[in-house]
Amino acid sequence: MAVEEIEGAGEAVAAAAQRYYAVAPGTTLNVRSGPGTHYRLVRVLPEGATVPIFCQRPGETVSGPYGTTKIWDNIGVGEYVSDAYVKTGSDGYVAPRCA
Fold first, then answer.
1. 22-34 pLDDT tens trace
2. Which pLDDT score is estimated for 41?
3. Are strands 29-32 and 41-45 parallel, antiparallel or unpaired?
4. Which of 12, 45, 61, 86 could bridge to 29 as Cys pair (CB 3.0-4.6 Å)?
């Protein structure tokens, strides 16, 4: 892989992370260490939180205010939330897939 491709990928991830998405109103949201509810609880986001999405990956299927999905959003190093609780405006991926 060329250096330019690697640099471009980093820029794409940084650009995707500049946007913040709202967590469903009235919801506190569990942040997990991986893409599923069986992963360790890292922290809990308060009501009214917004999150960056650095990348997304498939994982456990979850139903929430924004539908049923297997997409999990990476919001920080080792931090994942179900996309079913994040208002992205899409039923699909809105950020690059996590490596």
1. 999 999 999 999 9
2. 98
3. antiparallel
4. 45
78: tokens are 């080792």
Beta bridge partners of 45: 29
Give the residue ranges of DSSP H helices in 1-99.
Answer: 3-17
- Tokens 């699909």 belong to 92
Helix (H, G, I), strand (E, B) or coil at 98: coil
Contact 31, 79 (CB under 8 A): yes
Enumerate domains of the chain plus CATH numbers.
Answer: 3-87 (2.30.30)
Model confidence over 25-76: pLDDT tens digits? Answer: 999 999 999 999 999 999 999 999 999 999 999 999 999 999 999 999 999 9
Going by C-alpha positions, the residue among 24, 36, 28 that lies closest to residue 73 is 36
The rounded distance, in Å, linking the Cα atoms of 15 and 52 is 10
